[in-house]
Amino acid sequence: MIRGYRTTRAGTRTERCAAWAGLLLAVLALRVLPFRHVTRIARAARRVGRRPTTRGRAEDMVQAVRHAGRHWPVRIACLETSLGSVIAAALIGRHLTWCVGAQFAPPPTVYHAWAELPGHGPVGEEAAAGWHHHAALAI
């Protein structure tokens, strides 16, 4: 199932620059490194980003990464977008949780990755529209 996301320019200039850098690091890590090293990068990003963020800023960060992904010549999907958002948040000193798991809704069940705001659920996802996210890995 193909879903459309809003990919308008969002966030401050610093957040947009962090989004480009985070997406670049995420794409390189996912293409070159084994997955165990990618999870280490996500854990390091979690430790670096110590300050909590607001729901609005987190939404803007995810939107900025999706907007940056529109200009890339390679496939940018949920895994790249979510990891890029977590890394971008860490670059500006904030933290998001990187989740890899599944979305359950009748009838399709899809594997998915998303960024989550601790205690508030998925960021930039259609969780309010009836999709239920279940994380197999949360960093």
Describe the 3D structure.
- The chain is an alpha+beta fold.
- The protein has one domain.
- The protein is built from four helices and four strands.
- The chain has a four-stranded antiparallel beta sheet with strand order 3-2-1-4.
- Helix 1 crosses helix 4 and helix 2 runs parallel beside helix 4.
- It is globular.
- The protein starts with 12 loop residues before the first helix and ends with a strand.
What keyword list fits this structure?
45% helix; 19% strand; globular; 139 residues; single chain; 4 helices; four-stranded antiparallel β-sheet
- H and E string: HHHHEEEE
Give the integer mean of the pLDDT values. 87
Structural class: alpha+beta
What's the Cα radius of gyration?
Answer: 14 Å
Q: Total strand count, please?
A: 4
Q: Looking across the biggest beta sheet, what order are the strands in?
A: 3-2-1-4
Distance between the terminal alpha carbons, to the nearest Å? Answer: 26 Å
Largest beta-sheet details: 4 strands, antiparallel
Basic shape:
globular
Helix count equals 4
How many domain modules? 1
Approximately how much beta-strand content do the residues carry? 15-25%
Q: Helix share of residues?
A: 40-55%
Contiguous runs where pLDDT drops below 50 for at least 5 residues:
none
